[in-house]
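Sample pair:
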Amino acid sequence: MAADEREILTYESFGTAVRELAQQVVDSGYEPDLILSIARGGLGLGMGLGYALDVKNLSAVNVEFYTGVDERLDVPMMLPPTPDAVDLAGLRVLIADDVADTGKTLEIVRDFCADHVAEARVAVIYEKPWTTVHADYVWRHTEAWIDFPWSAAPPLVRRDRAGSATAG
């Protein structure tokens, strides 16, 4: 695959991915009590899986790692607020994210859940071959950079670290 090749996910194919991932979960017999989405990329997937699997207990965790195309922090950081461990106690959790690339983001969330939940499984739209965390449910495997429909165009505004916006 050429270095500049990209995987293009459209909104239509995203809908297909959600339903096919949900079917994988159903076929495996896993019945999650909670879907834990990794923000931002896993939020849409978590919502879609929630509807498809009839799970109303949804939560999110915000982990910052990517700062741009192939630009990352040294280690992922879980940002507050994080789910209360008491609320996770004894639950079967399905962790949802857009892509397992390095695996470090999934690892930090899986480790966060490990001591509290009955079982945690992972669902991703895309998985890269070099990831350190292999998801239980994967829609597609790719080595390419992925253009997601929600991030294909630049933001309408740019926010500085203080949160103020400037027109883009």
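The chain has one domain: 6-167.
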